[in-house]
Amino acid sequence: MTEAQVVRFHQTGGPEVLSYETATLAPPGPGEVRLRQTAVGLNFIDCYHRNGLYPLPLPSGIGLEAAGVVEDLGPGVAGLAVGDRVAYCLTPIGAYASHRNYPADLLVKVPAGVEDEQAASLMLQGLTAWYLLFRTYPVTAGETVLFHAAAGGVGLIACQWAKHLGVRLIGTAGSRDKAELALAHGAAEVILYRTEDVAKRVRELTGGKGVPVVYDSVGKDTWEASLDSLAPRGLMVSFGNASGPVAPVSPGILGPKGSLYLTRPTLFHYIADKAERDRAAAEMFDLVARGVIRTNVRQRYALADAAEAHRALEARETAGSTVLLP
């Protein structure tokens, strides 16, 4: 048996419902490995699970993303060895832990040249940037796109990846400091959404045309501006709710605004296939190792301080990525 420190919640609510507990791990079962986790990624979906927006059976662990080292193999595990460095970003939920048992076939090996903190902050956010840019709306060189929260964890990766692909990314940010951060990571222009008219500015930057796609993880506060920034037949990609969920929408509004398309994608539908997931992760890790994509772990909290990390994230006091350290 192995003792583990874990973060759990027994009721939904604010960050204060998170509790730091000790759990006993049984040996890994068939198809599982036991991991000693070295870094845990913090993501907005964790807040949605904690506050009940995305309901979970209670009590529940929390967290989807971590990196660590294989410590033990369960029956039937092939292709992994004790000591391998690995990372993941899929259910079962419970990444906020010092040790855990996890399905071996959902793990991705972390190559030399990529640090554990980088891997833990990249799996969910980096693969989100990958599916948005390559699958939901496959961008092409020379295009202009709008990406909200460009200084966030997903946004900074998207800025760099878009620039690498020859795409002009217009970002939005809530402060001058965050705007400068996004520009330093490849954004072509950044709009200060709190003081500027986003849609008007997008039209100015595109010669009145608008953009073919808007990637929006902010939600309620940017919904109207996002739709009004699109060119005719443009695609609205709503993939998050940082400011709160969008109110119920009548599809009738999409016609007058330009016969627009609307999608609500989820990462897990894009990486459910192991071969595709492994290819995407390998491509992403290769760009990191080559220095094309720089990771931005800008906040670190002890695992025991997960509640404080949630408060900072929801208050939009963070930039780049945040990791919890067991």
TrEMBL record:
GO terms for molecular function: mRNA 3'-UTR AU-rich region binding; NADPH binding; quinone reductase (NADPH) activity; zinc ion binding. This is Quinone oxidoreductase. The keyword Oxidoreductase applies. The keyword Membrane does not apply. Residues 13-324 form the Enoyl reductase (ER) domain. It comes from the Bacteria. Keywords: NADP, Oxidoreductase. It comes from Zavarzinia compransoris. GO terms for cellular component: cytosol. SMART domains: PKS_ER.
